[in-house]
Amino acid sequence: MSRRHPMKPTDPRVRHYTDDQIRTLIAEVHERGKKFGLVWPSATTDRTLDGRVLVRFNTAPVTTLLNLLNLLLDAERDNDDPCVS
Q1: pLDDT digits (tens, 9 = 90+) for 31-63
Q2: Where are the beta strands (DSSP E) in 1-85?
């Protein structure tokens, strides 16, 4: 179970992410996802809609990318923690 609360697409913080920052997040999701067999070769930034950069895997909002990255980070921690059953 995730330790963080998911960000909503309407979260005002996402308006501050630039295309370059989002590309870096996509690269991190690609790298971290590999160890779990998750691959998104076509994921990239798309367009900006209402001040929010969209990520191209079904024009998801950047919050989907951030939430996915948080899930991957949680999964990595759980795999590294010998006390987690």
Answers
A1: 888 888 877 777 778 778 777 777 776 566 778
A2: 44-49, 52-56, 60-61
